[in-house]
Target: AB hydrolase-1 domain-containing protein
Amino acid sequence: MTFFSAFVRPILIAATAGASFYLAFLGLLTIPALQDHAIYLHGITLTWFKDVNVPEQWGFLRNQVTPFQLKTPDGETLHAWHVLPLETYRENQNALRDEPTGLCRNITSRIGFQLLKDDPTAQLVIYLHGAAGTLGSGWRPQSYRALSASAQNVHILAIDYRGFGSSTGWPSESGLLTDALTLADFALKTAGIPPERVVLFAQSLGTAVSISLAHHLALQSPPTLFAGMVLVAPFANVELLTQTYSIAGTVPLLAPVARWPKALAWFNTFILCKWPSKDKLAELIRHTDSLRPSRQTTKYDITIIHAEDDYDIPWVHSDVVFWHAVNATQDPEANLAFEDLELLKDKQKTDLGAGGWEVEWKSHGGIVREQIVKHGLHDRIMSYPVVSLAVARAFHRKDST
Model:
């Protein structure tokens, strides 16, 4: 037996088989339905054997969470949760305990809804979760508890997008925007919460939905501007995401192809969902900066948070999103190159030691922050105090102005 047949040939066969498998995988990604599964991961519920209409399974108090449904304008049914603040629950726990549990067919008849609608001090987080799972998956319940346990009287409204969990339909870029608009409409019109008492919180895929929602409403006449927006582990757009993203942190999508720019550009032409977050956020800032001054001097309060050890979406995405946001506050002639802004950030950022660092960029229209923490991975960070603080800061800044 020669050296070639004993050692080299098996290696070549394995390499050829691996390359063939990867090429087949790329071919499958050009099929729209499979592409949607790769981007949204909506077929993975991560709450097997649990009923999302029984929130007590995740440690919530009896009727602290009310599961209900929303109808979208295009006929889909979205599953939703309303999470009560802990102190509000304590003050009304006897009445809340006496109500029936499970899926509520008429949310407006519930005590929890009235506590949100009738309290002029109530503050609301519209919560837009990331890809995969349901609103009860992973670290999301811990995140709700962290926010609702604050002293800010913070209610939470969360949905499963179309195609996720028990919500009907199939996810798409326009469809998820419709879902977010449906939730915002419920909050602003049905519950009657003014936008200055609403903060958008989003993570991963949800950051793209949140930016799209804020962008859409800000461009209406009259514009709707929320108290703030907290974006955890955002991505710049799908094209950049495909170069860096690994499914479940292990299976790279297009990292091997990214070594050949022309091949990557060609493959990206097959991607249907673009989610251009960096561009929409920049346009949102430019538009709101152009609005005529009013008593509301602060038009936006945006915090971008990312963990250095996030192996799903690298934190360079937050650098890119922040860069576009900063340039949106300036005249085009004064735009900063990415490298120049990084040098400026090194001089201006606040070093928090083992807690990471943060930098703020203020303009006449508002403030944009980038906070990079050293630990938190992709999902666990949602339950960390840095996120709760960012939400509280957005509410407090709006109260101050």
The mean pLDDT is 88. The chain has three domains: 3-30, 44-240+272-400, 241-271. The CA atoms of residues 309 and 377 lie 5 Å apart. Residues 241-271 form one domain.
